[in-house]
Amino acid sequence: xxxxxxxxxxxxxxxxxxxxxxxxxxxxxxxxxxxxxxxxxxxxxxxxxxxxxxxxxxxxxxxxxxxxxxxxxxxxxxxxxxxxxxxxxxxxxxxxxxxxxxxxxxxxxxxxxxxxxxxxxxxxxxxxxxxxxxxxxxxxxxxxxxxxxxxxxxxxxxxxxxxxxxxxxxxxxxxxxxxxxxxxxxxxxxxxxxxxxxxxxxxxxxxxxxxxxxxxxxxxxxxxxxxxxxxxxxxxxxxxxxxxxxxxxxxxxxxxxxxxxxxxxxxxxxxxxxxxxxxxxxxxxxxxx
Length: 289
What we know:
The chain has helices at 12-36, 39-56, 132-137, 142-160, 177-192, 211-251, 258-273, and strands at 6-7, 10-11, 59-62, 66-72, 75-80, 84-87, 93-98, 102-105, 109-112, 118-129, 197-209. By secondary structure, the protein is α+β, with helices and mostly antiparallel strands.
């Protein structure tokens, strides 16, 4: 397992000055050799000049939030991270790696949730390279690796939870957004750590039922909402009726037998639980006539 090691290189401006002086010297040597018609000097010029010219290929620039991975004949030498103008061995290969924060959005994936319902899901992943040696040497193409592994993690997450919660306290893709996003980031980060990539943020950007079942699921959600609302209404109505009976008995406004209480409870529940305005009926007689 290769680990990143940082190298500094030599100041590029100093080496540029040295190389320019050497180049001027070789030109002067050539002129002197031609004037003196000296074969040894010409041979020396032919041998020295290629090395001077080759030295210029060792000059390289490292921009902010970028790095260059240096290899010599297939062997990893180190990583240039300090920004500026530097010189390294001209025979080395220097591969540019961006250290900037990047993000991408996965394609809309069509998968089945934990309950088998087909859904569409997509996510936004924010990431950056933190270990250049792993990014370059442990995977073939770290950018493609990030995309494929992120979509795989999103697919796996979608199949692990239901789209909507049908029980109190149950985690779901729609309701438990913060927890789901946190687990998505952890899973993607675990998958990408072997490529020297850090996942800064991951969140679901698109979540919906597939078109073929969207209308049916909408009716199901509406029915569940209506049932939940009715339960709240009934609970409140029962409490109001209980409070009314207790208040009447406490203030001794009227004494009701069990049959009259049952009638009163029935009438109050009808008025309080009905989804329409009540139509009162005036009783001119008594309850027993």
